[in-house]
Amino acid sequence: MKNYTHINDIDNINSWIEEAREIKANPLANFELGKNKTLGLLFFNSSLRTRLSTQKAALNLGMNPIVMNVSGDAWGIEFGDGTVMNGNTAEHIKEAAAVVSQYCDVIAVRAFPTLTDKVKDESEQVLNSFAKFASVPIVNMESATSHPLQGLTDAITIAENTTKKKPKVVLSWAPHIKALPHAVGNSFVQAMQKMDVDFVIANPEGYNLNSQITKDTPIYHNQKEAFKNADFIYAKNWSSYEDYGKVLKTDLDWMITNKKIGNAKFMHCLPVRRNVVVADEVLDGENSLVIEQANNRTYAAQLVLKKILEDL
Ligand code: CP
Predict the structure, then answer these.
(1) Whose CA is nearest to atom 3 of ligand 1?
(2) Phi then psi dihedrals of residue 172, to 5 deg
(3) Is residue 52 lining ligand 1, measured as CB closer than 6 Å?
């Protein structure tokens, strides 16, 4: 595999899940594969799980990870083509990506959306510019519109925890005080569309995700109706896509509670705001899979890096 930038880079999700579970059972089995290879992790935005689990994955493969907080620590990067660089940016992506490629065998990038400029966000300017101007493979650690390492993790976690051949999975919007990206929701939708699950989305009116991503996945505006007979409930906030980047609703009537989820397993990518997105009782209860999900971030990243290393 050359790059991992999107859930569509997964050719067969069932075989990927199987391989990730093998890696989880024996994480150091491929320790020689990444020997003398360097993974550069470039963060334009904050992270706890992605930053640590991707480094852990690299270490399990014998790679040397190096990390940079690009915003603040690096020179301001210019992405425009032909720009007269007499403003705040000091280095063009053409040089920056080419230079990082001299030091790293694989480059992983995190760059969130503006949530104010839909066209710019959907152009995936940062991620695509690295893919264009770097001479080494690129891994998406959450871009403007997708978080495929998280989506793969979530697929692994559902496969590990299901007791049914075709479980019912619900992606539910949940409240938040801030405008959040659509990336996690988008990649979860795309991962579930590749799996043999009965998948529906629940969100208030005005919060439908991009219809080019949701396609024919059923969307409920009644959370109670959507949750009926659910085996997995995955909560996530996202800002409005239709009224781009706006927060239209902050009251807590869509917060996840024990009464709402019943016997379903609860999932969230984390970080999560307790008693806003989800009640303490759910996160502290036995049906919560959030820590197991966070653990699986390592094995999803390790599988992706392994596939890239095998093709170097
Ligand atoms: N879920 C996730 O990507 O977590 P971080 O933002 O902490 O990396």
Answers:
(1) 50
(2) -115, 125
(3) no
CA distance 31 to 33: 6
Strand partners, 66: 40
- Complex ipTM: 0.99
Does residue 49 have its Cβ closer than 6 Å to ligand 1? yes
**CA 110 to ligand 1: nearest atom:** 8
User: Residue 25: enclosing H or E segment and its boundaries?
Assistant: helix 13-25
Of 224, 229, 231, nearest to 257 by C-alpha is: 224
- For residue range 100-124, list pLDDT tens digits in order: 999 999 999 999 999 999 999 999 9
Host domain of residue 50: 7-146+297-310
Whole-number Å distance, alpha carbon 293 to ligand 1 midpoint, is 11
- Does one domain contain both 125 and 234? no
Q: Are 98 and 168 contained in the same domain? A: no
Indicate the number of domains in the chain. 2
Does an H or E element contain 128, and which? helix 125-133
Q: Is 269 annotated as a binding residue?
A: yes
**CA of 46 relative to ligand 1 center, distance in Å:** 8
If asked whether residues 200 and 117 sit together in one domain, one would say no
